[in-house]
Amino acid sequence: MFQALTTVLLPVFLVAGLGALLASRFPIDQTTIARVTLYLLSPALVLDVILRTPIRAAEAVQLGAAYLLTLGAVCCWAGSWAWARRTACAAA
Fold first, then answer.
1. Which residues, other chains included, contact 22 with Cβ-Cβ below 8 Å and sequence gap of 6+?
2. Which of 3, 31, 33, 49 is the most buried (most CB within 10 A)?
3. For residues 9 and 16, is the Cβ–Cβ distance under 8 A?
């Protein structure tokens, strides 16, 4: 129980306390903090969760196949959209 508190809650309280201390001493631009959180910290959290999740080889193959199928569908859609747009511009 104590280990859970120190590994989960202690870092949260330390970061919150550091943020409160910095906010009281320095003006913090909320737009910059929001951008850093969106573009850096959120992907880092997702990557950390993905890397720590145990996965079997069969599941990895299924996920890879689903990824390639989705990527192929998106590429086909984008290609057909670009072709239709180019054809419409050439006809005009």
1. 28
2. 33
3. no
